[in-house]
Design brief:
The complex is a heterodimer of chains A (about 400) and B (about 240). In chain A, about 50% of the residues lie in helices and about 15% in strands. Chain A has about 400 residues and is α+β, with helices and mostly antiparallel strands. Chain A has two domains: about 160 residues, no CATH class; about 230 residues, no CATH class. In chain A, strands 1, 2, 3, 4, 5, 6, 7, 8, 9 and 10 form a ten-stranded mixed sheet that branches. In chain B, the strands form two sheets. Chain B has a six-stranded mixed sheet with strand order 6-7-8-3-9-10. Chain B has a single domain, classed as P-loop containing nucleotide triphosphate hydrolases (Rossmann fold, 3-Layer(aba) Sandwich), CATH 3.40.50.300. In chain B, strand 9 and strand 10 form a beta hairpin. Chain B is globular and about 55 Å long. Chain B is an alpha/beta fold and about 240 residues long. The chains are: A alpha+beta (about 400), B alpha/beta (about 240). At the A-B interface, helix 1 and helix 10 of A face helix 2, strand 6 and helix 3 of B.
Chain lengths: ~400, ~240
Amino acid sequence: MNLAIRDIRHSVGRFVLTTIGVGMLLMVVMGMGGIYRGLVDDALVVTRGVGADLWVVQRDTRGPFAEVSRLPRSMVDRVATVPGVRDAREFVFHTIQRTHRGKPLRMGVLGLGWPADTGEGLPLIAGRPLGKNHFEMIADETLGLALGERLRLGKEDYEVVGITRWMVTSGGDGIAAFTSRDAQAIQFDEPGESVRLEREARRGRAGEIDFGRTQPGVLELATGVSGAIAALPGPAISAVIARLSPGVEPDAVRRAFSGWGDVTVYTAAQQEELLLKGSVDRARRQILLFRVLLTIISAVIMALIIYTLTLDKLHPIALLKLIGAPNRTIVGLILQQSLIMGAIAYGVGYVIGLRVFPTFPRRVLVTGDDLLRLAGIVMLISVLASLLGIWKAMRVAPNEAIG
Amino acid sequence: MAEPLALETSGLTKVYGSGHTEVIAMRDASMRVRRGEVVALLGPSGAGKSTFLLCVGLINAPTRGRVTIGGRLMQDGSRSLGDLRRFRREHIGFVFQKSNLIPFLSAVENVQVVGELIGKSSSVAKRRAMELLDALGVGRRALNMPTQLSGGEQQRVTVARALANQPSLILADEPTAALDSVRGRQVMELFRDVAHRHGTGIIVVTHDHRALDVFDTIYEMEDGVLKPATPATTPPQRTATH
């Protein structure tokens, strides 16, 4: 006969309510872990999606995910010539906020190195990769855009041709992928008035120097498009991503860049590490501390509940001792109740979490390993929580059943 | 060879406190109970009756004296608490003033648990529990929880539990106090039947003088001193003659 189950059956209502309460607490612990995993996974989805072996970024910066990195487009060709590099592509990444359907729409703009990269490596759940050099985009589903929908960004309309899932920035904003040219057009878009004023300013500056006054063509050029003026740099890219030839060691190629004074080069692993230690690290540690606190709180609450349940059973425990029940029977009664409560609460937390987590604004990624680890922690908590009750039960004298 | 006594105590003394706070709750109490004998223990409140039962029941250790149950010397200070508890579950049954049933177990489970504690399988212990409940007239209430039973039914279940380990000794502390006179007498007669049928020695602490004719032997306790009852308070043929 299992005394623990008999006792639970006797006060099933209270046990169920208590267990649901503990379960919801464990769900929060589970959720915090899931938020952390989601944060890390979200942060890495782009870096992993583009399949780069090396990241070439502006000198002494930590790359486009940590801070502003600006490189000339010509860097792509320079990187491509390095021995061991199979191909090199430009990488553009920045965040914008626009208004869409009357609501703010914040998105990470990812520029793909068309035509080598059409977005096939992205986690598409509907539609297709980019098929044209211009005016197409692949949007994450969190942006709320539908396939075929057209979105005006800058002076152009972009059609949504593909939908991804869980492709978000480390800040949680959905990412939209464009060709790098379009991404730059969006990034450096200026209103017509601003362009006209800039051209007039250039004309004024050219007119103040001898060369401008003696060469009418220069004044004409100054009022034209910026791209036609050789002295002006083209739009910058954020980074150059390089894929290496099979069998080539990334660190070996990276050392080849050591003489380049204008760039810093990271391997994919280093870039991921920078990403996690930079923008995600503080959030990660904060979540970790919350998890630890919640775990301790869960243990304390469970201990108090088990202790209270034991206090309610002191008379039956004394009676059991009176009729000669060994200590292991009484310890088993309390310990099993605690373990049953922990196990059911864990299940309750898991089931509620399954329904609740998808409604969270950020991804809650609960992995099998994390679930197993938490199950172990819950069992440990259950054992620890029962110790107070067991201590109390051991102090009960059999003659207390008589009084 | 003569069958061992159900209980024999000699010089049983219990002292609480020490120095000027010392209280002698029981002094040189000696008693012999044969198998199948039903003994009444009378006395006013605070006379030391419960102290005697606690020492005999191996719950409290006496300050001095010896307790021998079923021929085995149990209380002489040499036994561990675990030994005493094991002996208690295998050889002693308890019935108390309040029914003292485990509230989260049904009637049959309250009896069954004793059988399982002494190592019987669940099915055997349950069968034995049902037999006892049937024999005591509460078989049809076997699946009821204690709160669903009347006072008399609860006390019968308690008696069944006390018998579940086939004890050589049953200790009952005012088992009829919560019952009316008719029910009280039924319980006392039940003890006599049990003692005679199972050969169990039974000591019943009681204030109820109306059912004293049920007992084979009567003791009195006053100010911690145990002695055979005097003819002034009880019928002479019922006083202790050991």
